[in-house]
């Protein structure tokens, strides 16, 4: 046996355990009996410990060290080089973290999430503040242990978007904001509004379930290799090379929730189903980054699922599925309703345009916390000020303000940025696909999503971690990441919907 | 830390892994996507290997040896003594089996089941015979490796019914047969029949699901600590101290299948839910034997669920749930239909009375195979001869004859007996409970199953493996195992239904 074979076999066994832990987690969120939570937590802790020991085993370090020095690494895009480079990157990160810090982070995350739930329910930020302070302190320690190129926040960002630098992300997101804020203002001043009431008519649950499954299958999600179940908080998880499970939740009085939720999670699922199954558990068969993962969900949810061409195909099906709600509704009114832009206080309810402003606020605030430019005590007022300034809205309380997201309580600093990166990547990929595939709209209108899906598999999914996110964008689109494709998409769609003149659009874009 | 603490901690960790493996299995049979089977098998093999290594770890042998010699073992009914004795018994068995034999048995079982499926579909016993021959040879080797008191078959029986001897089981089952055959003949000659057509009217699936859940909850199955799902082959599995999952299958045109299936599996489930949760994974919190487990399912399915008193309570509910099928059906006719006795060829479709005759046939044939008194080549004709002699029916082919059960192909020799032992234990326990609780019928008529359930928890479930099956029967009922309570139950119920005179009954019983 050669060292690379040893390494791959070892890693595949780790993946078998990780997929087993993922099943424990999926089951916990779907079908676990109410009283069984405590024992399930013990099972997951045991598996997590076994996996962690395998991932930090010195044998692994020895193999990786030996292989990294090997000549077979000459081509950095080869499977072997990709496997060794990416496993070594992960290993080197993992062994830098002292065991005591890892355990303290885990404990604080559990306590932090509990405190956050209670604080949010009682609108009581002060009761959550001490744990958040501790978490911020631990995340700084984590960043210092990991090391970084330019700033502490880089180290945290790197956990979700490997190789990304805060300075680069800031540059793109700032350019995005500079054009987005005036676009949202122009929309507000247009005097037009979509009729959202159409979406809160009665959409029977059984019909929603069937419709969601049908459309997920239509865009290519394989139910031979996956499932769709119901959970309070939708997610996508992969439990093996041919086992991708997505979830959604249904509300009879809110059509877009489940429907775009299914498209979003199916987008994640298509990425997982498009990875090389024979490389399962190896970097050659793994997603690049959270941002790239999110790009696939946002692409199907927004670029496809909220496009006019998609509804040209889909609206007759929707009308047949929901006659009571839609028989008297024109396609263009439905289309406007699902694309209505309106500044709001809650991120997860935000529309396609304002969503990124919610992210920008969090991205800036968490950087300031980590870089010691903002204290936890001052966080609520900083939050309020940013919402007032950016979205023109003042949160009535902390529960609907700074306490609305679970992320910080769980120690997920550096995570929010990947949501907007996903939107940016998605638009840039989509523009390229549209050009190379000769116009996607005509294909969508006849319900043909195969060319786009196959293009994504070939260009993105099947690449695994051969490229970093930044390299992949350059490789696939011929350009570095930019705010321009996303803004072109938003200005085009909303300019038309809200009757903004191209001049207005240009002025607005100039800001 | 004392040695007993080390032992219990070690064992609890093994149980965490075993419960995880059980989840992998449950998911495989309920929700696994079609294409994911191969990877799931790899996961289960990995976990099974880890568990096997832990169970045969020499450290475990050292601890058990040390503890078995300890003075705290003086009281054989103490928790400590129970834990050490039962773990040592399992350990000593496991380490007696050569690794090569274990692997050969596993491989032959997988191949055997595949061959059995194909052979049954094509009604081709000859194609299955070579693998069955190999399996019988391996089971003899297994018996020789394990050792036995009186005959080889003892060693196999012991895997499912620890401590049981073939000679004892034969004595009880033969006495049962001697009274059962004339009872079945008297029923056949009575000229009466239940109207089974009532049970194949339309029973809508959704109503069956709700009704099954309702009755399972009524007899005490906790959905806080369990679930009911749908599978092709119903089963009960426990995934943790508060996580017992049962399954059933629904057929719109066959009411008893799902309904008595749910009662049967809920009976198994009540046993699991009645074990001491704080002793989970230890012999003090485990079921005694397969026979005792089966006694709990048969008790709820037959002694309760097919009793007149139960339907006094349940029939109005059934009529409300299935108005289309039952509005014109009298309770007594429905009761007769679900209790109709009729000799048949297929074990799993057999009624309460003839079921045990199917088991007797298998019990005798598999003994003869293991003891080298019957060759595999002669098995089909021996099967046919026994069915003709015992049930008065001749199988039209091997698919509905000797090939109908999966057990032998999977190496489950010694297993069938536990089904009839379950029926015997159930009747003997039930008689005692009825006496001690002052008449259960009146309680059932008003839908009160708590006294019986609590009695079972106290006398049986909470005892764990403190007693062997034989000891438990003696302890709970004051008598050794006997065919008399089961025959008293069958003669009482069917004597009344089929109008057999007590004299007839006595003559029949005398045989």
Task: Describe what this molecule looks like in 3D.
The structure is a homodimer of 511-residue chains. With 511 residues, chain A is mainly alpha-helical. Among the domains of chain A are: 94 residues, no CATH class; 194 residues, Orthogonal Bundle (Neurolysin, domain 3), CATH 1.10.1370.30. Chain A is built from 22 helices and three strands. The first copy, chain A, has a three-stranded mixed beta sheet with strand order 1-3-2. In chain A, a hairpin with a 2-residue loop joins strand 2 and strand 3. The longest helix of chain A is centred in the first third of the chain and has 28 residues. The radius of gyration of chain A is 23 Å and the shape is globular. The interface between A and B is medium-sized, with 34 and 34 residues.
As a percent range, the share of helical residues of chain A equals: 55-70%
The major sheet of chain A is characterized as:
3 strands, mixed
Kindly identify the CATH topology of the domain at 196-342 and 422-468 in chain A.
Neurolysin, domain 3
Mass-distribution shape of chain A: globular
Count of DSSP-assigned helices of chain A? 22
The share of residues in extended strands of chain A comes to under 5%
Structural class of chain A: mainly alpha
> What is the typical, i.e. mean, pLDDT of chain A?
95
Oligomer: homodimer
SSE string of chain A, helices as H and strands as E:
HHHHHHHHHEEEHHHHHHHHHHHHH
Q: What topology, given as strand order, has the largest sheet of chain A?
A: 1-3-2
CATH class of the domain at 196-342 and 422-468 in chain A: Mainly Alpha
Most extensive contact: A-B, 34 and 34 residues
Give the end-to-end Cα distance of chain A, rounded to a whole number of Å: 62 Å
CATH architecture of the domain at 196-342 and 422-468 in chain A: Orthogonal Bundle
Task: Extract low-pLDDT stretches of chain A.
Answer: 506-511
Instruction: Count every beta strand of chain A, where a strand is a DSSP E run of 2 or more residues.
Output: 3
* CA-based gyration radius of chain A: 23 Å
């Amino acid at each position: 046996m050669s060292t690379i074979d040893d390494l791959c076999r070892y890693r595949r066994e780790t993946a078998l355990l990780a997929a087993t832990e993922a099943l424990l987690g999926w089951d916990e969120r779907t079908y676990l009996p109410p009283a069984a939570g405590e024992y399930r937590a013990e099972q997951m802790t045991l598996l997590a410990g076994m996996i962690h020991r395998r991932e930090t085993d010195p044998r692994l370090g020895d193999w990786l060290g030996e292989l990294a020095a090997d000549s077979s690494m000459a081509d950095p895009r080869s499977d072997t080089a990709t496997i060794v480079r990416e496993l070594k990157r992960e290993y080197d990160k993992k062994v830098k973290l002292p065991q005591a810090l890892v355990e303290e982070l885990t404990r604080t995350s559990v306590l932090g999430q509990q405190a956050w739930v209670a604080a949010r329910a009682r609108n009581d930020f002060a009761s959550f503040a001490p744990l958040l302070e501790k978490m911020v302190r631990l995340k700084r320690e984590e960043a210092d242990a990991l090391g970084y190129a330019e700033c502490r926040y880089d180290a945290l960002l790197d956990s979700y978007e490997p190789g990304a630098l805060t300075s680069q992300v800031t540059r793109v997101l700032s350019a995005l904001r500079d054009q987005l804020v005036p676009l949202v203002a122009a929309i507000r001043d247009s005097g037009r509004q979509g009729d959202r009431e159409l979406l809160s008519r009665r959409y029977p649950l059984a019909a929603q379930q069937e419709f969601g499954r049908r459309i997920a299958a239509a865009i290519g999600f394989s139910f031979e290799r996956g499932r769709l179940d119901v959970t309070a908080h939708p997610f996508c998880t992969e439990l093996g090379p041919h086992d991708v499970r997505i979830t959604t939740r249904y509300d009879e009085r809110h059509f877009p929730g489940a429907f775009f939720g299914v498209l979003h999670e199916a987008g994640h699922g298509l990425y997982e189903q498009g990875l090389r199954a024979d490389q399962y558990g190896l970097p050659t068969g793994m997603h690049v980054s959270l941002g790239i993962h999110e790009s696939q969900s946002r692409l199907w949810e927004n670029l496809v699922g909220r496009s006019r061409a998609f509804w040209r195909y889909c609206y007759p099906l929707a009308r047949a599925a929901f006659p009571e709600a839609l028989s008297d509704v024109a396609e263009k009114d439905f289309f406007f309703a699902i694309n209505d832009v309106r500044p709001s206080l809650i991120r997860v309810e935000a529309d396609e345009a304002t969503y990124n402003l919610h992210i920008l606020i969090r991205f800036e605030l968490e950087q300031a916390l980590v870089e010691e430019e903002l204290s936890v005590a001052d966080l609520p007022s900083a939050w309020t000020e940013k919402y007032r300034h950016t979205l023109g809205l003042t949160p009535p309380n902390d529960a609907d303000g700074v306490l609305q997201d679970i992320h910080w309580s769980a120690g997920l600093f550096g995570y929010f940025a990947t949501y907007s990166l996903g939107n940016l990547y998605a638009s840039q990929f989509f523009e390229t696909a549209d050009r190379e595939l000769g116009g996607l709209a005509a294909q969508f209108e006849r319900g043909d999503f195969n060319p786009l899906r196959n293009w994504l598999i070939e260009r993105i999914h099947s690449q695994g971690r051969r490229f970093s996110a930044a390299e992949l964008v350059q490789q696939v689109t011929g350009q570095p990441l930019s705010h321009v494709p996303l803004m072109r998409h938003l200005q085009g769609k909303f300019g038309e919907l809200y009757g903004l003149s191209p001049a207005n659009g240009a002025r607005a874009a100039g800001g």
